[in-house]
Amino acid sequence: MSTPINPVLETFLNPTPGRNYTIRIEVPEFTCLCPKTGQPDFATLLLEYIPDQYCVELKSLKLYVWSFRDEGAFHEAVTNRILDDLVRVSNPCYFRVTGRFNIRGGIQTTVICEYRKPGWMAPEPVALP
User: Which of 7, 12, 72, 94 could be stapled to 33 by a disulfide with Cβ–Cβ 3.0 to 4.6 Å?
Assistant: First the structure.
């Protein structure tokens, strides 16, 4: 029996809301359909974010990602839509979505989109000896 696809993204309370820390999630099996040909497009999604009050719940993320399997979408549109949906539910300090789409017809596409909460400043990097 297969799991029904439920594209509702869920969140949970950030266990450490007073600290800037990065969460990285790799989704190596993203699939959508080419809106021109109907053929499947495969990609690896890299999600990187600094949460504020909420973190993205992973099982709901998995089901959300599966919901694109039968949907036609250009690489640029689907990557930006995923960012918009994740920002809408989690209201993070920072979010970056990278879509690395597999080679099709000799062309490999990478789409990177970002969101920064107004007024949020990234912490200074620490240079270790």
Answer: 72
pLDDT, averaged in runs of 10, over the chain (129 residues): 68 96 97 93 98 98 95 96 98 98 93 97 90
Q: 62, 52, 83, 76: which is closest to 10 by C-alpha?
A: 62
Say whether 41 is catalytic: yes
Residues near 88 by beta carbon (within 8 Å), at least 6 away in sequence? none
Please tell me which residue in 32, 41, 55, 93 is annotated as part of the active site.
41
List C-alpha distances in Å: 75 to 33, 109, 119, 120. Answer: 10, 8, 30, 28
pTM of the entire structure?
Answer: 0.92
CATH of region 11-116, choose from 2.170.130.10, 3.30.1130.10, 4.10.910.10, 3.40.50.970: 3.30.1130.10
55 flagged as catalytic = no
